[in-house]
């Protein structure tokens, strides 16, 4: 069954579930203006983010990441490993930073099942539909 949130307009998504508001332990605003928002994202080992979304497309530069990382629906269903970061991890050799172009992400959670803290900078582009 198709998730209706994915089909909807990201500008209509619940502002209370914005990553910074819903998961502040994991998302810190480093810079923001009317065009960009730059977040520092951290997710310790065996930690799971609260349900949240990212309404804008972004570039995510991860300087520390190791599988397994699991995407989970708001209802708790584990998603298959076919989403942006999961796919990028499969082709990454572990050298340098992992850079991932991210589409808007509907509400969900991420679970870090690895033994390292995930760390990266996410640059969200607000004026791109």
Low-confidence blocks of residues: 1-5
**What percent of residues adopt helix (DSSP H or I)?**
10-25%
Distance between the termini: 25 Å
Oligomer: single chain
Task: Give the name of the CATH superfamily.
Answer: Jelly Rolls
Rg (CA only): 14 Å
Structural class determined from secondary elements = mainly beta
Just give the CATH class: Mainly Beta
Q: How many domains comprise the coordinates?
A: 1
In the CATH hierarchy, the third-tier topology is known as: Jelly Rolls
List SSEs in N-to-C order.
HHEEEEEHEEE
Q: How many strands, what sense, and barrel or not for the largest sheet?
A: 5 strands, antiparallel
Name the beta content range.
35-45%
Strand segment tally: 8
Counted by DSSP, the helix tally is 3
- CATH architecture, by name, is Sandwich
Description:
With 129 residues, the chain is mainly β. The protein has one domain (14-125): Sandwich (Jelly Rolls). The chain has three helices and eight strands. The protein has helices spanning 4-7, 19-22, 84-91; strands at 27-32, 36-43, 52-54, 58-64, 69-72, 98-102, 105-112, 118-125. It has a five-stranded antiparallel beta sheet, with helices on one face. A three-stranded antiparallel beta sheet has the order 3-7-5. Strand 1 and strand 2 form a beta hairpin. Mean pLDDT is 91; it is low at 1-5.
Give the gist of this structure.
This protein has 129 residues and is mainly beta. The chain has three helices and eight strands. It starts with a helix and ends with a strand.
Give structural attributes.
mainly beta, 12% helix, 8 strands, Jelly Rolls, five-stranded antiparallel beta sheet, three-stranded antiparallel beta sheet, single chain, disordered N terminus, 129 residues
């Amino acid at each position: 069954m198709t998730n209706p949130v994915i089909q909807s307009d990201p500008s209509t998504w619940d502002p209370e579930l914005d990553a910074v508001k819903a998961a502040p332990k994991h998302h810190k605003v480093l810079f923001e203006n009317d065009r960009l928002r730059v977040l520092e994202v951290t997710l310790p080992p065996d930690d799971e983010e609260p349900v949240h979304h990212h309404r804008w497309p972004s570039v995510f530069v991860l300087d520390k990441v190791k599988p397994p990382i699991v995407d989970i629906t708001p209802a708790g269903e584990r998603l298959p490993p076919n989403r942006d970061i999961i796919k990028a991890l499969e082709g990454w050799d572990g050298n340098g930073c992992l850079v991932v172009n991210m589409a808007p992400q509907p509400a969900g959670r991420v679970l870090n099942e690895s033994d390292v803290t995930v760390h990266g900078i996410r640059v969200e582009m607000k004026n791109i539909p």
